Predict the structure of PHOP2 phosphatase.
Amino acid sequence: MKFLLVFDFDHTIIDENSDTWIVKCAPERKLPNGLRNSYQPGYWTEYMGRVFVYLGDNGVKEDEMKRTMTTIPFTAGMIDLLGFIGENKELFDCIIISDSNTVFIDWILKAADFHKVFDEVFTNPAAFSSTGYLTVEHFHAHHCAKCPKNLCKRKVLKEFLDKQLEQGVSYTQIVYIGDGGNDLCPVMFLKKNDIVMPRQGYTLEKKISQMAQSLSPVQCSVLVWSSAIDIMSYLKLLIKE
């Protein structure tokens, strides 16, 4: 009996967007208008590539970026929740599927000593170039029209579950914890016995409730959370059953 916990990262594990937080490193803590306005829907990774070039051009180094990123607050109750999961790892497999990047997530989880809670992190690969610039790449290629070019979270989840099955691991229930519009695609893949936990007041919750109103609700159960303590309460019930 094992449960799979799938977490988004920005606005779910941390209470901010890691990609917009890095702007605190920019001169005057803001980006020039031309750069800010260069974002095109579906091409966030390309936009962030330009942001990292701008930071590099302005002499922002890796250690300054790291110091800044590790000041991002965790969501209310999240430290308690991750501690609880860490103490019960025999019952929970735990993964992150995020549109952030490997460098940011790694810094933040290691600084708080939570990297061991997660079995795998699926996010855009990032690295520092020989000249000290942060570069980020697409996570994968996919054919899903609903998702941004660089990441379809449904595809990631499906491939992870297939790989686990090959190794003889199947899950009693999947618990999907997220907040954003790009979390809807994997949630649509969940089955009747699974559960989605959308963050209260965020896009994912709004989209799920719109679907219910138009009589095409998601298959899985829905439990809204505002503090990660809500999630922990649910997990405690699960393991009591």
Notes: Residues 16 and 99 are 13 Å apart (CA to CA). The chain has a mean pLDDT of 96. Strands lie at 3-7, 92-101, 120-124, 126-128, 134-136, 173-178, 195-198, 221-222. The domain at 3-15+74-125+146-239 is CATH 3.40.50.1000 (Rossmann fold).
